[in-house]
Specification:
This protein is α+β, with helices and mostly antiparallel strands and 105 residues long. Helix content is 49%, strand content 13%. The chain has a two-stranded antiparallel sheet. Strand 2 and strand 3 form a beta hairpin. The longest helix is centred in the last third of the chain and has 14 residues. It is globular.
């Protein structure tokens, strides 16, 4: 018998904000050493991996997100991801990540 899991898929093509007029604006990368110009899954995952990952589980999630553009997310990973995002970026990025987490449930 297959065990039921509560894992859901978290992913995106480009991270940004959809304003109240329903217009999407991608977040810009302000790191001059990065070749990325917007928040792609590769940039997002690599930045957290280098600067804020605190567990093997989050490392594995970030590797999968970096490689595939999406990854299985658990409640534990969601909490760690929210903490990491809040330490690196401002409220607007955290809000959009929280919306993506909610959509993945």
């Amino acid at each position: 018998m297959k065990e039921k899991t509560d894992n859901k898929t978290f992913g995106f093509k480009e991270l940004g904000v959809t304003d109240l007029n329903n217009v999407f604006t991608p977040f810009n990368v302000e790191d001059p050493s990065s070749s990325e110009k917007s928040f792609t899954p590769k940039y997002f995952a690599n930045t957290i991996y280098k600067n804020a990952s605190k567990s093997i589980e989050l490392d594995q999630f970030l590797r999968e997100l970096h490689a595939n553009g999406e990854a299985e997310i658990t409640e534990q990973i969601a909490a760690e991801l929210q903490e990491a995002v809040s330490r690196i970026w401002g409220y607007t990025v955290l809000r959009e990540v929280n919306l993506l987490i909610e959509k993945s449930k």
